[in-house]
Structure formats: structure tokens, C-alpha cells
Amino acid sequence: MKISLPAFVGRIAFSALAALIGAAFALPLIWFLFAPFNARAELGLAIPDPWTLNNFVTVFGNSYAVQALWNSFIQATGGVILVGAAATLAAYALSRSSIPGKGAVTYTLLLFSSVVSGSAAMVPIFLIISAAGIMDTHVAVILTFAGGLLPTAMFILRDFIDSIPKSYEESAMVAGASPVQAFFDVALPVIRPGIVVVVVWAFVNIWGSFLIPFILLRSSDNMPASVAIYSFYSEAGTPIVTLLAAYALIYSLPVVALYLFVSWKFGFRFFGGIKA
Amino acid sequence: MASVEFKNVTKSFGNFHAVSDVNFDIGDGEFVCLLGPSGCGKTTSLRMMAGLETPTSGQIFIGGQEVTHLHPKDRNIAMVFQDYALYPHMNLADNIAYPLKVRGEPVDKRHARAREVADVLKIGHLMDRLPSQISGGQQQRTSLARALVYPAKVYLFDEPLSNLDAKLRLEARGFLNHLQRDMGMTAVYVTHDQAEAMALATRIAVMDQGKIVQYASPIEIYRRPATTFVANFVGNPPMNLVEVEGAQADGRLALKAEGLGIGALPMTDAIGKALATSNRLTLGVRPEHLSLAGAGAQNTIVAPLFANENMGPESLVTLDRGEGARVTARIFTDDHLDVSDTVTLGFSAEHVHLFDSAGNRIPAVGE
């Protein structure tokens, strides 16, 4: 195919511009990948010379940092199980039953969800958690996140379940299954891709959050990694870049791994309806 | 196998009566078709038999036992869904064997039985496939196999053939007919396709606006449609209906309409009663009872030609009587077809159906 000269120049200019923008976004990522292996890492971009794993050794030698990763894992997993299970059951009920005003319920919850996990509600949440006597526990963080994430999770899942024909469960029940059997044998496997999406989304949300654990937790034994990163500051308040970079890389790995696992196992694809 | 009975069954959704005060019974071993246009309540009736909907009022019996409020799982019925409802995450073996699984059959036993049924339906070689990996016709047979894998009291079919192409539909229809002869099952079959109903049913319940308009054998419905609605719904193409003005003359019935030439018909009490209400009657003649007529024919309809469709063995000749009123005739193509601008169709008096001003059938002499 022949293209005219102006069009050719235009394309080159466009590609150059796109490459420039791309580079601007890529630079932090390259730093993120290089700095952890650099014994003299600074905020500037530099290729490690020599490559070293010393930063990681130091991080893993810091029991507080390792404990924080474990705390992150507990809080994220706990939150995900709670959100996943509750959202699935609630969304299924909202989708399948004929409760009057169920649409209004979903939208109201959705409206409030941004408030619950947002900073606006921090004071009441603090007071509630304090009154419940669960301050400085994993449960406090898990419950707060569940409350904040559930409405959106329910909304996503309800939409997903709405798109699945009722006839799946109906045929199971006519065939002799109880509603509970029909749910676990037929409905749950079909809506599993939707649940996976919600679970990944909830995990990433909890794993990456700072404010809620920072406020609801007191002792350093309970702090998640997002808060613990602050321990890699010198007393003068300047960051120890080498350790910070190594810890940041470790901190981000579970999320990347989760995405890869899910996309390998489920491919983020939906069964959808069989061709009718 | 068992009988089914509806007693004063009504189902309302808000102010809308999907099914209103319906009564009928289905005998043991009968194949009953619920026939009607969409929204007539036929699927709702079927779903109430299955237990997927609860009647607003009335009672439903299966095999003499009241099941009105019984959960679907406790009714021991089988159902084939319009969209097949095959479980996308299970292979065909597990799909077909699912009813046996919930009945607690061990896995090897239920797979053997599933294979048996699948072989009859010629899908036995596909047992490891997922539903998304087989064709539409095979999916349809899989859903049928899942319904046949266990002995049910009643088999319910919700437009099971409507998603198949024309050729597969004929094939599946023939197979269902054979199956019914073979098993003698009690079946209720919902369809809007009158040809399917005529071909399969021992009795047809024609439904309109939540009510059963006529419940009779296919041949009865074809020969003696109870209302103009039934007449207009059954038959391919349906019966021609012509608005006529009736009058009594010399003890016989004279009918008048534009382009219609018809000899006086014998008068009956029923006609007299209809005329006493209104002289506006409806004359019905089936397309297959119309033929191209010469000038001497006694009963004729004359009108300009609207369309002439050659279907192979026969042609559909449609006349336009003005204001959207059309008359269609099925003419054997072998007959000398000399269709010009104006066509004369002839019919015999014995093929005339009469309906009163409310659309109800006026019984013919000897009915």
C-alpha cells in the first residue's frame, strides 16, 4: 500500500509522540525493577552495577517488615473471603428473588459504599470500632473493608448474575434438586468467573490501602505492609531508597501473581449463554 | 405416568392476568399441546405444572395428588426448556446424568444410564464434550436426554424446537412423535407453531388472553374451530374469514358480501339465534377448500389478485378484497393455473364455516 508523503510524516510524528508519552510512563516502572537490585539506589534511574540481592536480605532480616507482609495477607484474605461469600449470596438473592424495591436497595448501598471506606466516615468508623472493643485487631480492618467493598461487589455480581438465565437453576430443581443443591451444583459454577473478578478486585483494594489500617491499628505487630513501608525512613525522615525499593517490589508481587494466576486459570472469560 | 388436572387456576402478575380461571384435565398417557400466540398464558400454565410459578388461586393435581404448592423437586416431573438450560461447566455425561445425581445414584451407574439414553438419541459419542462444543441440534437432544434419563410422572416441553432450523425441527418433531408412541408418556407441550401442535398432540388446548378457547383433538380443532380466533390460528395458511351480512329468505340463509356469490344455505335454530342478535356473521373457508373456478361455479369469491406464490407442489393464490381483507387459496400446481388480474375462487357449501357476531362457531347441520 502506498501512502502519501504528508501522511507518512504524520504517522512518524504520531509514533514519536506516542513513544515519548510511553517512555514517561515506563520510567518509574523501570526504576521500580532496577532499584531493588542496586546497592546504591537513589531516586534517579540507574542500571545496577553490580546487581545485588543485598537489599532483599536486609528486608527479610527485618522481622517487622516480614510480619507486616503476613498481616497484609491476613487482612486481605480475610476481607476477600468475607466480601466474596457475602456478596455472592446477597447478589444471588437480589438477582433471583422478587423482593419489591430490590433495585433501590442496591443503588442506595452503592451510594453509601464510597462513604464507608472513604475518609469522610473515618471518625464514625473509628468510634464504632472503638465502642465494639476491637480496636487494633485484624478483625476491625477486615470488617471495615467488607462494609466498604460489599455494595460495589454486590452490584457487579448482581449485574453478572442477572445476565445468567434462570432456567439453569429451574431445570436443576425440576430435575429434583433442592434450591441449595441447585445453587451449589449449577448456579455457583456458572457465576464463578464473576466471583473471581470481585475477589481479585477486593484483594487489590485491601492490599493496597493505607488509611484504614493506619487509623484502626495501633501496635506495630498488626500493621500491614502498606503502613510498614514507613519503617524504611531514617529518623530524619529521608527514605532509605534501597530498602524501600526492594520492599515495594516484594509488596507488589502478590497482586501481580494473583492477576497472572487468575488470567491463566480463568482467563477472565465468561461462559455466557450457550449459543441458542 | 400420571394425569394432570387444573381446577380454576388463575395466575396474576399485578393487575395482569396471565392465566385466568383455567380448567382442564390431561389423561394418563396423553400428549397435550398448549397452543397460542405469545403472551396467551401457555408458558405460565406449564411453569405452574412444573412448580416454577405458584398459582394466585386454584388447584393443580398430578396423578390425583394436589401439587399446587409443592416444590418442583417433589413433583417428579421432567422438563425441556426452550433455551435447553444445559449446564455449561459439565460435560454431556454429567449434564444428562444430573437428575440421577440428585437422586443419589452412584457415578458409574448414572453414567451408564446416561450413555444408554444418549445412544438412543445418537449423541452417545459426544459424552465428553461441553455443551458449547456441540451443535444446536445436539444441544436440543442433550436436553431431551436429560429429561428422559429418569422415569417422570409428566414430561413438560417449553417450545423445545423453536431454536432449531426448519429441517432439524421437522426431524425432531418426528422423533418426539415416535417417542410418544413408544413410551406412552404423559406430556404437555407448549408451542406457538400450530403445525407442531397438530403433528404431535392427542389433544390441543388453544389459548388466548389467559383462557382456553378450545380443548379438543387436532382433527376436531381443524374441522370445527370453536371461534374465529381458533380458525385464524390453526391451519397453514389459516382459515379465510369473510365478513358477511346474513338474512333469512324463504326459510333459508342468504349471505351477502362484496365479491361473494353464494347459494342459500339451510337454516337452523342456531343460525336463527345468531341472526336475532346481529345479522353480521363471519364466513370461513379453509385455503385448501378453495379452487380456481370457472364461470358456472355456484359458490365463488371474486377479487383482484394480490400475490401468487409457487411452493412447489402447490401455489398460494391470494386475493385482495380491499381494506386489508385477503383471501388465500391453496391450489395444486398441477391444476391449470391461469391467474389473471381478477381471480374467481370456488368452494363447496359443505366446507363453509359460520361464526356469529361474537366470533363463536354456529354449529353446522348435523353437528
Features:
heterodimer; A: 276 residues; mainly alpha; MetI-like fold; disordered C terminus; B: 367 residues; alpha+beta; Rossmann fold; OB fold (Dihydrolipoamide Acetyltransferase, E2P); 2 domains; six-stranded mixed sheet; six-stranded antiparallel sheet; globular
CATH architecture of the largest domain in chain B: 3-Layer(aba) Sandwich
CATH superfamily of the largest domain in chain A: MetI-like
Q: Report the biggest beta sheet of chain B as strand number plus sense, adding barrel if it closes.
A: 6 strands, mixed
C-alpha Rg of chain A (nearest Å):
24 Å
Q: How would a crystallographer describe the biggest sheet of chain A?
A: none
Envelope shape of chain A: globular
The overall pLDDT of chain B, averaged over residues, is: 91
Most extensive interface? A-B, 22 and 34 residues
**In percent, how much strand structure appears in the residues of chain B?**
25-35%
The beta-strand count of chain B equals: 22
Number of strands of chain A: 0
Helix fraction of chain A, binned, reads over 70%
Report the CATH topology name of the largest domain in chain B: Rossmann fold
Distance between the termini of chain B: 34 Å
The CATH architecture designation of the largest domain in chain A is: Orthogonal Bundle
Whole-number total of structural domains of chain A: 2
Termini separation of chain A comes to 42 Å
Shape of chain B: globular
What is the SS-derived class of chain A? mainly alpha
Keywords (chain A): Cell membrane, Membrane, Transmembrane, Transmembrane helix, Transport
Organism (chain A): Devosia sediminis
Subcellular location (chain A): Cell membrane
Membrane topology (chain A): Multi-pass membrane protein
